Amino acid sequence: MTGIGRLRSLRGRVLLAAATVLLAVSGGAAGATGAALPPLPRASIDVARVNALVHAMTLDEEIAMLTGSPGAGVPDPTPNGATGFVPGVPRLGIPAIRFTDGPAGVRNPLTPTTALPAPVSMAASFSTELARRYGVVLGRDARAVGQDVLFGPMVNLVRVPQAGRNFETLGEDPLLQSDLVTAETRGVQSQGVIATIKHLAENNQETNRMNVDVEVDDRTLHEMELPAFQAAIDAGAGAVMCAYPLVNGLHACSNGALLTDILREQWGFTGWVLSDYGAARNVASGDVTSGQTTPGQAAAFQLQAGLDEEFASNNFATVRADVVNRLIPRSIVDGAVRHILSTMDRFGLLDGASPSGAPVVSRPRPPIDVDADAGVARTVAEAGAVLLKDEGGVLPLSGASLRSLAVIGPTSRQLLVGGGGSARVAGFTAREISPLAALRSEASGAGIDFAVGDDLDGVPVTRGALTPPGGAAGAGLLRTDVATGATTVDPQVDFTGSAALPAGSRTTWTGTLTVPTSGAYDLKVQGAGGAASLTVRAPDGTVVASGSTGGFAGGSLIPTIDGLTNSNSSAQLTAGVAYGVVITGNAGALTPLQIRFAWVTPEVRQANIDQAAAAARRARTAVVFAYDEGTEGRDRASLSLPGSQDALIEAVAAANPHTVVVLDTGDPVLMPWVDRVAAVLEMWYPGQEGGAATADVLLGRADPGGRLPVTFPASEADTQVAGSAERYPGVPLAGAPAGQTVEQYSEGILVGYRWYDHQGITPLFPFGAGLSYTRFSYSSLRARTEDGGLEVSFRVRNSGWRTGSEVPQVYVGAPSSAPVPMADRALGGFARVTLRPGETAEVTLHVDSRVLSYWSVDRQAWVIASGTSVVQVGASSRDLRLSTTVAVG
Ligand code: BGC
């Protein structure tokens, strides 16, 4: 018999009882080495060479190396789509460095790269091996497109369930994050690309992210937010990005407690610290440093705090005069340069450099392995798929269900590839097919009916509703060519396809919108090839709807069917009122502008829901896709699905008892309909291969292998940040600079499942939850102390009829004599096993001593607590099958 159990944890080993094959061995606290690492990065630094280079550099060359562009730095002379650029010193053979976003794939506007599933999907795989492979793709793609440093992984803890960037990070548990980022960092760096762990620290929300002052106590900081950063440093991460917020009164990039005391002194970090874009605040921007008044002083303060390189700021050039005038020692500039050069040396970037002069040597750039990377993307999307509910075996789809299936929802016909902002990656678009298309091609012979249910595209606003200024009612909108002033009246704004407006053109449309019936309207501006915006105002000037297709948070994550960026705004409009409309369309310098002003009226919205319910009624099974839109730049307004999606799901579920909901969301959503649907499958933002992966899981070609890395609450009021503006989103503080808010992390260590356990709140779906298409039973738990931690072993048996994956989880209770309150239970280890029917795995996990420890503020060290501890093993944080106690400390 061949062994099919797989070890997926760096901390444990899995032995197949039947096959008695040891598949892997246990690792250490920060994770053991997985596959043998390629030669880079090196373990040691050529200190003599680095020192000699620093000595040979002029002050101007040094300052240029500390000043990234965009910002005051030198622009890239040969742009290749990099997010950031720092010049080298060609006369010494020091190459320039190019930096790229980011955590979900390499963001490059010029060259296609692989769009991986969102990091939260990888986290849901609970697989360190997949985390490593995910990192390898990031590193390989970055290197292929000429980048040296990756701005990722992101490991800020999910603290605010509605935070815009939750999809970019690795969940709510420090141990899960730590194990995954260890493996991912090694994967990235195995390709000779420097990983940047971001954002140190407490970038846990988008609301006022540049100016929120996080008040967090030392213990909470060390136990919740920081472990994954430290794990990445232990894994050899070359760079750290400091964050936007203030942490305990100082902006993170000016914060010596974070950047020096913790990062360098407690953790021994030897790499370099670079700033988030514009996070290196200066005197002019109202930074709260320690009374610095000149730009040079502020820059020196930041350098001394531990920041080495700034991006999109304008500070570091200002230290030049103070160094020349000997007000600031040159050694602080040398120190920052040394951090950068040392790291470059570890990654082989200085191999051709010499203090006595040398040409810059280019490094090899192997091309992207498109198919191999796509394979990883698809595997991760499937392994991260979380089946939350499956009643009556409605999934996987087969037989009668497939012969009569209604597929509903916009993200079934348009693939939602990834979240928004700097982590957004287009992917290899030619490969991207929708789940609907994938189902149609993979389940040949199936009878699939499609209904959009929630139409995100809409249709061009009808002429009858539009009136030009001073013109006849219902004639359209007035178009003005901004360059020439020429005007004309357009019955509709729909300049798409061959009607696109010429490259370089700038156009506005003005007039009024008068709707025939009162109600909720979706007003959309859609565009491609430039930037389009819409503003709709009530007669008193109040903005009732606005949208833009540009910028980080501009436009929907879901393009229109004809490929335009879609920006939707919902507005309650009153019949007969003339609302002012202004639309702008700026074509690109070289690209024509496609632009459309579209809407969905209340009548059409209801008709779409009715049609979807009718399709569901006709079918044996209905699969309805729902989405949210996580993006950098803004938090979600609530945990509810946006728009009318809840109403759509309710209508479909009322029409068909075999309703399956597929979620494309970046984080938890509320499910008021959950009791009325048969199944719920969370696919997250599944990346460029997400259509095929979704079809694979729905059809049972892949087991839904994921488990929740975040708690899904039953109600918004249940979360640890609910009901307290001090906890979220923060409150203004008397005497603080304008715009600054303060936020208290007063929940302490009770984040995520720790909060729900402590409060006795039952979540909708708990941390760690997820079903397989088969069943597993647990037995034979043993736990004993080992190396200050625990060795925990148990058996997992596939007691069902299909091959499937299980993620057994070990939770450790607070030691009975702990002198501080500890979590009721904390994740101590996890594995991922794939078993055939009847097969049993013997799982042995090492629980690190950290899990039994607390951060002692007095001693500034981790201290192991003593007493007895309950050790539980199960399939989620609330599905604990085995329990024992062990004496610890
Ligand atoms: C984000 C970073 C990102 C940077 C560069 C910032 O807005 O916070 O995560 O790496 O932009 O795109």
Number of helices: 18
Strand content: 15-25%
Helical proportion, percent range: 10-25%
Radius of gyration: 28 Å
> How would the global form be characterised?
globular
- Main β-sheet description: 7 strands, antiparallel
Mean pLDDT: 93
Which residues form runs of ≥5 with pLDDT under 50? 1-11, 17-38
Structure notes:
- With about 900 residues, the protein is of the alpha+beta class.
- It contains 18 helices and 41 strands.
- The strands form nine sheets. Strands 15, 16, 17, 19, 21, 22 and 24 form a seven-stranded antiparallel sheet that branches. A six-stranded mixed sheet has the order 2-3-4-5-7-10.
- The structure holds beta-D-glucopyranose.
- Beta-D-glucopyranose binds near residues 102, 198 and 422.
- Beta-D-glucopyranose binds near residues 101, 198, 276, 277 and 422.
Short description:
The chain is an alpha+beta fold and 889 residues long. The strands form 9 sheets. Strands 15, 16, 17, 19, 21, 22 and 24 form a 7-stranded antiparallel β-sheet that branches. The protein has a 6-stranded mixed β-sheet with strand order 2-3-4-5-7-10. Helix 4 packs antiparallel against helix 11 (370-383) and helix 14 crosses helix 17 (690-698).
